[in-house]
Amino acid sequence: MAMRTDILRQLGQQDQPWDVLVIGGGATGLGAAVEAASRGYRTLLVERFDFAKGTSSRSTKLVHGGVRYLEQLNLTLVTDALRERGHMLRNAPHLVHDQQFVVPAYSIFSLPYYGFGLKVYELLSGRLSLGRSEILSARSTLEKLPGLIGDGLRGGILYHDGQFDDARYAIALLRTFQDLGGTAINYVEAVRILQSNGKTIGIQARDGESGAVFDLQAKVVINACGVFAEETLSMDRADHGSLLAVSQGTHFVLLRSFLAGTTALMIPKTADGRVLFAIPWHGATIVGTTDESVDGASIEPRALVSEKKFLLDHITRYFGRRPRTEEILSVWSGLRPLVKKSGVKTSQLSRDHTLLVSPSGLITVTGGKWTTYRRMGQDTIDRACEVASLPKLPSRTLELKIHGWTMDSNGAASEWERVYGSDLPMLSALSSEENGLNALLHPRLPFRAREVVWSARFEMARTVEDVLARRTRALFLDARAAMESAPAVATLLARELNRSEGWRAKDLADFLKVAKGYLFEGPE
Ligand SMILES: Cc1cc2nc3c(=O)[nH]c(=O)nc-3n(C[C@H](O)[C@H](O)[C@H](O)COP(=O)(O)OP(=O)(O)OC[C@H]3O[C@@H](n4cnc5c(N)ncnc54)[C@H](O)[C@@H]3O)c2cc1C
Question: Are 497 and 466 in contact (CB under 8 A)?
Answer without folding.
Answer: no
